[in-house]
Design goal:
The complex is a heterodimer of chains A (119) and B (138).
Chain A: E1 2-5, E2 21-24, E3 28-31, E4 36-38, H1 41-49, E5 53-55, H2 58-63, H3 71-82, H4 90-94, E6 98-101, E7 107-109
Antiparallel strand pairs in A: 1-4, 1-5, 2-3, 6-7
Chain B: E1 10-15, E2 18-21, E3 25-31, E4 34-39, E5 52-59, E6 62-68, H1 74-84, E7 89-94, E8 102-115, E9 123-131
Antiparallel strand pairs in B: 1-2, 1-7, 3-6, 4-5, 6-9, 7-8, 8-9
The chains are: A alpha+beta (119), B mainly beta (138).
Chain lengths: 119, 138
Amino acid sequence: MRIRLIRQDLNAPPGTAHEGIEKRAGGVLFWRVGTVIDVDRRAVQLLVGNGDAEPADDESEAAVPNWRQGRERVLLAREMLARGIDPDDRERFKRGELLGYNADGSEILGPNSGGADDE
Amino acid sequence: MAKLKVKGTVIKCTIATVLTAIGQITEFSHSGAESETYDATTIDTSGAGKEYSQTGYTEGGTFDFSMFYDVDLAAHQALTDLLTTPADMVYNITFTDATPTTSAFTGAGLTFGFTGAMNDGLKADVSIKLTGLLAYST
């Protein structure tokens, strides 16, 4: 079964060899967005369900027949997870007031923040 | 020199060669890593101090974390899949430094349990037994 990876922050385990993998800063391996990989049925369910991938053939589509249902919510939750958005800040993220955090813990404000940093 | 915040740290597990984030973790710890030694004291050791030398092996320790357990969350299911189908799994931790630095490790075994209380959300405790060593930053 084939799936297409849709996120740019998906690592590959060290030592994994595949033409869809690129090495980034620090030698860390990442999957390129759009890479299609062969996986088993369980991995289709998990990676598509987690918002990391989409079905790329009929067989994998059949493994997750309702994957489009509530997809926007899944992708938004996945994005907040990747950015480490604190549960208390999730509504602000959804409203575009917060994009994430700097290394010092300060907030990266979004376009709808009005310029206010309430931390 | 910096004090890295924990907020924003991402811990990932592997699903079919794809490392994806484990959500809803509230705390984590790595412990028990130890460069092993043996007692090298002999009857003609000078002084009172006992002597130790290195065996050449290092215990990898465990990586433990607690999380709000979501039975529908894919990454949580990937962890419990290891109970029904034991296998090695590669994990990594992405820290919050500017780079950002990642440290990978392989887990050989998993301890998993969950608890419910009237005044709290459903929580799970996970303990991963490392095989080999965590890839420490150098």
